Structures are given as structure tokens and as C-alpha cells.
Amino acid sequence: MTVMHAITSFAVVAGLMTITPGLDTTLVLRTAARHSRRAAFATALGINAGVLAWAVAAAVGVSALLNASQLAFTVVKVAGAVYMLKLGITMIHHAIRPPHGDVATADSLAGVTVPPSATSCFRQGFLTNLMNPKIGAFYVALLPQFLPPEHSAAVMGAVLALVHNVEGLLWFSLIILAVDRMRDLLQRPRVQRSVDAVAGSAVVGFGLRLGLSRS
């Protein structure tokens, strides 16, 4: 398998994974609707940084080691599930009782005040992916099929992760720009509470699914 063939084949698989609705899309949608394009792009960059970290870890064998240890995998899985549950419950709480009747934010988990900073949004996106061992497991299962033996696994892992990152940024950019066109509607308090309620419920669902999974 040539490098170009590996990149092209991986791009197709990663592209399908990118556009599949999930936790990452939910976070970017919620941030874009509740805050600003800048905050949403920061969240997207954090998500992609988490993906890159897992991909490189998988390429050098760290994720494989984690998956081989049931205890280590369980610890990371439970920590990730707890983080997601806290994040989702906070969103739901703010949908029911907005702080001071103003724009609420679930970013307080990262010590952020309203409005959230780009750094806090990046951190939230990064931690959400970094604390999800399922992403590491995905890369452990997927990457070996696209690593030419004559090239460094770590370098190729990083290259493939960057391909995934580019696709992710393009997808998130479309979402953010589409949401931005509906800014006037989304700034209404009732709509923003609905966004928090729906996003929070989705994030809680992802957290429960991660925590209750057997592998």
C-alpha cells in the first residue's frame, strides 16, 4: 500500500465517521447556537486536538496498551462517562433554571464564566475526546489497516489524524456557518433553553452509553 493510497482510503472512512451524528457534532452545534462562531471554532479545534492525541497514541501503541489492560480502560471509561454526565446535566439544569435569567453555559465545569473564553471552549472539546477511550479503540482497530510498513507508524498515524482533522474542520465549519445564519432566532431565550435541553440530554445519553458499555 502506497502512502497516497493509504491516505485516500482512510479519508473515505474518516469522512463517513465525521458526518455521523455524535457527541462532537452536538458540542459544536450547542456552542455555536449558545455563544459565538469564535467559541464554536475553538471547541472544534479542541475536539480535533483530542482526535490527534488518540491517533498518535494508537500509532505508537499506547492505546493498544490501554485496551489490553481492563482496569486502565475501565478507569478512563468511567472518568469520561462522569465528565460527560456532569456536562450534560449542567446543560439541562441551565435549560430549566438559566443563571440570572441570562445566557447560560455548561462551561462552568472548566471554571469558565459567561461568556466562555476560546481557551475554555478548546479545553472542553479536547477533554471530551481525550477522556473517551472508545476513540482510542476505534483508532487501534482502524489505523493498522492504513499504515504502510516501510514508514514510521507514529508519523503516518499523525498524517492520517491530520486528514481526519481537516475533514472535521470542514464539517464543523459548515455547521457553524449554518447556525450563524440563524443567529437572530437562536438568541431568543426560549430557543437557547431548548438548545441546552436537547444538547444536554444527548450528552447525558452519550455518557450513559459509554459508562454502561462492556468494552
TrEMBL record:
Chief location: membrane
The record's section on PANTHER family has: ARGININE EXPORTER PROTEIN ARGO (PTHR30086), ARGININE EXPORTER PROTEIN ARGO-RELATED (PTHR30086:SF20)
In Swiss-Prot or TrEMBL terms, this protein is called Lysine transporter LysE
Stated membrane topology is: Multi-pass membrane protein
Q: Does the keyword GTP-binding apply?
A: no
Read off the Pfam families from this record.
LysE
- Residues annotated as transmembrane: 6-29, 41-65, 71-89, 153-179
Q: Where in the cell is it found?
A: Cell membrane
Task: Specify the species.
Answer: Arsenicicoccus piscis
**Sorted alphabetically, which keywords does the UniProt record give?**
Cell membrane, Membrane, Transmembrane, Transmembrane helix
The cross-references to InterPro entries, in alphabetical order and at most eight, read:
LeuE-type
